[in-house]
Amino acid sequence: MRIFKLKNTIQEYAWGSKTIIPELLGKTSPAEKPQAELWMGAHPKAPSVILQDGKEISLANHIKQDPKGILGQEVAEIFDDKLPFLFKVLAAETPLSIQAHPNLLQAKEGYKRENEQSIPVDSTRRNYKDANHKPELICALTTFDAMCGFRNYSEMCDLFQFLQLQKNIPEIETFIQNPTGRSLQILFKELMELSEKRKKEAVDLLLERCKKITPRTDEERFIFQWINKLSQIYPGDIGIFAPLLLNTIRLQPGQALYLDAGILHAYLKGAGIEIMANSDNVLRGGLTPKHIDVPELMKTLSFSAKPLEIIEPVSFDDVEFIYDTPAYEFRLSIIKLTESIKFYNAKKRSGAEIILCRTGFAEIEWDREEKLTLKKGESIFIPFSAGKYKIEGKAVLYRATIPVPGTKKK
Fold it and tell me: Which pTM was predicted?
């Protein structure tokens, strides 16, 4: 079975960069419109396309022709004959919305409920675009600013008190008196549901304090800077409080974050490789003009305060470096081919794969005769039945695979 080059869809969202994706693909830069995401996979919203027998066909339809041969028998059985991951290049010039993703049960129930309510899938009022959950990994290509998960309760209280917010916002004073997951849940809901008048007063107070009070640490300076930036992009939005509530960090290139269901987060600025379960379900909580459903978001969120874990890649064989996560739909790794290590051999494979060339040039060979060249910005789909393959060259490649067999569907 052949390995195919992919033709992928670019999503032109307002927060995207006009330079990062065009430069990766070798196209005119800057682009006329912001280019936010490059999708690689078989999601029904924007499946990749391959050239089969001289005709273009979507990757989703290609997989339908022989799911067991293309995906691998066990993968096809576990994931209902579908490619279980969606692979992306993400390029954020301005912040994405504050958001979280549902777990699998919530997604199934929500999707069924909204279908029964006859809400069109493309409606702005729709929360659930599909019946799948969306665990995801973001791996930084550049310095990458993000907010992810609620910060330690004591840190949160300290920031509130340092800015003296509790004196004018009684909801914050109540939380400070008893900082727990339950009281944070109440505070978050109250902030989200403030009247427009009180919301403006709270945001104005926060901005005034951030301008008048000198940060005590570099971390606080970073937090205050993002509060001010968010206020300029989304004036009056209650999401401007988010850097006080959420871990606000800067990833260095190569570092990654894993986000499971219910983790409130927002990507702020930078480019990254993103891989996730094959879903487009998003529940928003601020920094957006789009639909926000507070009750549905509240049902989804985890209000526990866990230390933020930055994932570093682990060397597998001096050429492949793996990002380890609990996800059973995907695994991301980096293949680094250099002057001293020019070859990569993929022997034991568990399912279909997608490989993206980040830099350089390489040649992939399979079945002892078939070959494809791979240059910067190009991506390929490798069916399971292609068997063993070898890559030779000088390049940095991002490899999306499926960590089965032996994994049972949850």
Answer: 0.94
**CA pair distance 322, 311, nearest whole angstrom:** 10
Tell me how far CA of residue 360 lies from CA of 106, 315, 353, in angstroms. Answer: 42, 21, 20
CA 261 to CA 267: how far, in whole Å? 16
To the question of domain 314-401 being in CATH 3.50.50.60, the answer is: no
pLDDT in tens, 181-233: 999 999 999 999 999 999 999 999 999 999 999 999 999 999 999 999 999 99
| DSSP summary character for residue 366 | E
- 151-247: CATH topology: Phosphomannose Isomerase; domain 2 (1.10.441)
What CATH class does 10-67+85-147+251-284 carry?
A: mainly beta
User: How far from the centroid of its chain's Cα atoms is residue 68's Cα?
Assistant: 28
Beta bridge partners of 391: 344, 364
Q: Which amino acid is at 111?
A: Y
Q: Is 198 a catalytic residue?
A: no
DSSP 273-317: EEEEES----EEEESSSS---HHHHHHH----------B--EESS
Distance, CA of 89 to CA of 212 (rounded, Å): 39
- Give me the amino acid identity at 391: I
Fold agreement (10-67+85-147+251-284, 314-401):
yes
Sketch the domain layout of the chain as residue ranges: 10-67+85-147+251-284, 151-247, 314-401
The sign of the dihedral angle between the CA atoms of 315, 316, 321, 323 is negative
Give the active site residue among 198, 209, 216, 284: 284
Percent of the chain with pLDDT over 90: 90
